[in-house]
Each structure stands twice: as structure tokens, then as C-alpha cells.
Write a sequence for this structure.
């Protein structure tokens, strides 16, 4: 592996988590800072991916209600299993907490990635930050 995955709190990981999300969501995808910084990070469990050189390359979070979100991988690291490792870390946390299921608002283009884990889409496509999403769910 050319990277490692670390569970972190917002308090400990904020600068690195913020750097990844600003690069991917705000600069690349055009999400407004007001939407990205929703006030839910302090109460969430985060997973941070670091390259072996110590660079922040990906992240994700799970809320206390078992909602997974903010999974992001910087462009140079996509297609290298970083997202897989992040999601596996979040799912392991959910399992350890005894959550019966998790849900996620997936960007439509990423749906096949989540379906490989067993997530099932429900409902209709909706827009969030001008990006098409689907609500997906998985029983643990």
C-alpha cells in the first residue's frame, strides 16, 4: 500500500480533512463553502487517508445517525483503492458501533462504486449542490 487510513476526530484532523474537502468539493466540484461546512463535523467520526509521504489524499465521515458522507479522494489518487479503504474504515466503525444499517447520499456517477459494497438505491435522483444524487442504504 502506498497510503494508510486513520480514524480521526475533527479536533485532531481538521486541517488535513479540510484541505481534501476544499480541493475536491469546493474547488473541483463547485460546492459552496456554506454547504460544505455544515456544522456536523465535530460530532462525526472521520477517516483520513494519508500517502506514505504524509500528504492528505482522501477522507470521509459518518454521523452519529449512521449517515455516511463527505467521501473524497484527490484526483491524483483516484483509481488506487483509496476510496475503497475509506469506505471500509467507515463501515467497520459503523459495525463496531452496532448500527443495523448505514445510508449515504451518493453522487449518481459514483453509484457503481457503492453498489459493489452492497448499497441499494432508493427513491428518485435529487440535486444537492447542483450535483445529481441518489439516497442509498446498506444493512450491516
Amino acid at each position: 500500500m502506498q497510503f494508510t487510513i486513520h480514524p480521526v476526530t475533527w479536533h485532531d484532523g481538521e486541517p488535513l480533512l479540510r484541505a481534501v474537502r476544499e480541493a475536491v468539493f469546493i474547488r473541483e466540484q463547485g460546492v459552496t463553502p456554506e454547504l460544505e461546512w455544515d456544522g456536523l463535523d465535530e460530532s462525526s467520526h472521520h477517516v483520513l487517508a494519508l500517502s506514505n509521504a504524509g500528504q492528505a489524499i482522501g477522507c470521509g465521515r459518518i454521523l452519529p445517525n449512521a449517515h455516511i458522507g463527505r467521501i473524497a479522494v484527490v484526483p491524483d489518487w483516484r483509481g488506487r483503492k483509496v476510496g475503497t479503504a475509506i469506505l471500509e474504515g467507515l463501515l467497520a466503525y459503523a459495525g463496531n458501533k452496532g448500527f443495523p444499517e448505514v445510508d449515504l447520499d451518493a453522487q449518481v456517477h459514483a453509484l457503481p462504486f457503492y453498489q459493489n459494497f452492497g448499497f441499494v438505491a432508493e427513491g428518485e435522483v435529487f440535486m444537492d449542490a447542483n450535483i445529481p444524487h441518489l439516497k442509498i442504504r446498506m444493512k450491516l
